[in-house]
Amino acid sequence: MSRFKTLALLALALCSLTAGAAKLEEGFDFQNISPPQPTDARGKVEVTEFFSYGCSHCAHFEPVLASWAKRLPKDVALRRVPVAFNDSWLPFSNLYYTLEAIGEIDRLHAAIFEAIHEQGLNLAKPKTLEDWLVKKGVNMGKFSDAARSFAVQTKVSRAQQITTAHVVKGVPSMVVDGRFRPAEPFAGSHNDLLNVVDALIVKARTK
User: Which contacts qualify for 107-112: CB closer than 8 Å, 24 or more apart?
Assistant: First the structure.
């Protein structure tokens, strides 16, 4: 067999695998969320990541998710919801929404994971967090005001309600359009997980 024919057959095989990956089986590849949950992104398919800064698996997932998010089509929106399964994670939920409120979350989101899981900083401790934020150039007056604000506290409470409504049992966890989630526990790689999410986005567009 010529080298050209071998490469052609290989390409055909890869195309078949890709096509097969898009055919999802309910109960095996994904689960329906019942009842479906409302989304915030009007006119778009919303993909929600449930995460916590205290979760090492979320830290490993973050760079893969961030790279994937840069390639999202215009009709898809990514929403992050910080989860607090216990009181020790509540400061991280507050941190996320406070930084979001003052326009710093995009700049510092990945850096928070790095500080906690690579540098060993306990950012749940107020003094450690303040020192770290100052080094990152955050205006602490604005941060403190936002952290105590009704708007941020409301978002923290709502995140807990959303987590319960979606029956999130572990993180990171992904939900598409408030209706579908990849099967849990997920046995594949982070990229495999996002391939399923991509297929669920297509599914959400057609229903």
Answer: 108/136, 108/138, 109/62, 109/80, 110/62, 110/63, 110/66, 111/136, 112/53
